[in-house]
Structures are given as structure tokens and as C-alpha cells.
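Subject — a protein and its fold
Fields — amino acid sequence, C-alpha cells
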Amino acid sequence: MTDINEVNEDENVDVAEKQYSSANSEKCWRNLVGFWLLGLCNNYPYVIMLSAAFDLLHSDYHEDPNPSNSSCPRNDSMCNSVSTGAILLADIIPSLLIKVVAPFIAINTHARVMIAVTLCAMSFIITSFSVSHWMTFLGVICAALSSGLGEVTFLSYSSFFDKNVVSTWASGTGGAGVIGALSYASLKAFFDTRPTLQIMLVMPVITALTFWILIRHPQSKRLNCRELCRCSAEAKPILEGEIDMATKEYVRKPSSYTLKEKISLTKPLLKYMLPLGLVYFAEYFINQGLMELLYFKNASNWLCHKVQYRWYQVDYQVGVLISRSSVNILKVNKLWILPILQFINVIFLLFNVYYAFLPNIWIVFAIIFYEGLLGGCSYVNTFYKITVEVAEKDREFSMGVASVGDSVGIALAGIVSLPVHEVLCKLPAYM
């Protein structure tokens, strides 16, 4: 009789294990797809504002309610009165501030996502109805706050899932670059700036559906299969942490860390943050300080100045997408190599802006594509190394803090690009 009971118990356990395996498989693909979509939607408004920077700063955006955007103007000026670096600063400084503050403030994840979704919608509404530069910048700031809050929230939240969601998140952010830049450049061939931005209100809706419907949210740390079969309820949070049922260890939540503990955890992250910040400083100095001046008149019969800038952005984002999706194929252990290579790009393109020695636009397209490859490679390898090298109990906090590294680099690039733009626009070639 005992043997029969044991056999029945084993059969029940086997059935439960198969059911759990099937449910876990569904949960896995839903989370992988979900984090890809979250990466896409989170970075989309940020990319759109940078792709539209040249148009948003152009005078006819505010003066003519129905400008002809599909054709090139007869007098295609080389320099806007304000550098696109100004849009970059409005797009990154609020994001940087919220990334610095968010890991140190305990706010419910679902509340953070709701705020990010609302800010994203506001960014497109305000910018599309803008009647002045200050209103445009307000819309860009909302986009920055949305993307910054979303990045620190979703990266921190990813620590509760399988580590592969980091690579799908990174791939999604790369996809945001390509889809955002390509959709803007394509829609602008048919629509004015305003309706183009209004069409993009679909993105915050997709974010909400992905986070609250598609993703399977963890209610506790993973339970092994036999424990799941025999337990009537999942482990419940205890005080400011929870029990990891696999190791029987108490795991603290980041909100329970003291300020001193958070500072001590931040110091070891500098080896990840400094290379990432330098790579992003270099590439965004190119994108917002030099890109609008990489103008080829011999290509203006099919790509005028505005259109050249838009397709440079698409080209760059394609490189980012490919490299951010490559961490499972190619891993870079020595992160310091990447900023060195990126600064070589800066020096080369800066000399070209000054001396105009490159013969055609296709060489610049190739360099910008390579620039995007380096930037995306730095981003995904940095966060992948953190998931592998940082202790699991500190990973959520570390992921959120490390995301500050690229934002600092981008903010500094925006600051530096403004005076550089002024100096370069005074050269005879750009007058």
C-alpha cells in the first residue's frame, strides 16, 4: 500500500512538473518579447526628438502651419541658429537627473511605469501642438523624463527575471533607434511635423499593454519544481526583503539599503560606468555637434540638408540595433577598447567638418554606421557584465545606478557641442 501511494505521489509530481515546465516556457517567451517591446517603446520618444531635432529648431516649424516638408527648400542653410545639441540637452539632462534620483527613492514599480507612460504621451502632444521654441523644449523634456524613468525602472525590474531579458531589452532599445528614426524619416515624406508626432501616440499605449498584460510578473523568487508542487502558496515578502526559496537565504530589497550602503555599492560600478560614459560622450558629440555639418552639396539633388540629417540618424540607429542584439554572439570583456575606438571617429569626422576632405556622402554613412556599432556594443556588454559579475542581491540597485553612466556622457556631449557648433558655423564654408 505504501508503494502504491509513493508511485501515485511520484506520478502527481511528474504531472505537476510538466505543467510547471509548460507554464514556465510560456512565461519565458512572454517576458523576453515583453522586455524587447518595453525597450523599444521606452527609447522611442527619445529617438524621435533627436531625429526631429533639425526640424524642431527650424524656423518654418513654428511660422508655417503647413510647410512643404517633402521637398527641399531652395535656400538650404547649413546651420540652424541653435545647435541640435540644445535638443540633446533638453532630451538628456532631465533623464540624467531622474536616473540619479530614482534608485534612491522607494516608489512602486507599477506607479513608476504609469508616470512614464503619461509623460511619453504628453511629450508627443505638447511637441505636436508647439507654437514656440519653449513649448517644443517642454515636450522634449517630457520625453526625456519618460525615457529616463522608464530605463531605470525596467532595468532594475529586469533583475527579477531570467538574465536573457537584459539582452532582449537592449535589443529593443536598439530597435527603437531604427524604428524611430526610420518611421520619422518615412512619415515626414508624406506628413507635416505635427501629424507625424501625433501618429506616434500609439507608443505609450503599447507600453501599457506590454507591461500590464503581456509580461508575467514574478510574485516571489523562483521556487524549484518540487517545492512548487508541495507548497500551497508562494513565499511572501518578509519585512524589507524576501526569502529566496532555492537558497533559503533572506534577500534584501534596494529600498532597505542605507545611504552609506548605496554609496559603497556605487563605487565598484565605476569600472562599468566610465567606459560607457566616454563612448556615449564621443558618439553624441558626433551626432549632435558634427552631424548637421556633415553636409554634401553633391548629394543635395536627391538628399537636401534636412533629409541628409534624418538618414544619418537612421544609419546610426541601424548600427546600434545590430550591436545591441549581438551580446549572445560576441562578448567584449575589455570595455576600455570601445571608447578609444569611438574617439578616433570623433577626431576623424571633426577634421572632415573643418577641412571637407571626404569625396562623397557614402563614406560618412559607413563611419556613422560603425559609430552606432560601437555605441550599442558598449551598452549591451556593460549591462550584461553587471548581470554576470554583480551579486544577485545587489543586482537590481546596480543596474539602475549604472544606467547613469551613458546619460552623463550624453549630457556632457550636449554641453560641449553647443560652443563647438558656434565656432564651426563661423567658418567660411558654413556661412
Observations:
- Residues 64-70, 221-251 have pLDDT under 50 and may be disordered.
- The two ends are 96 Å apart (CA to CA).
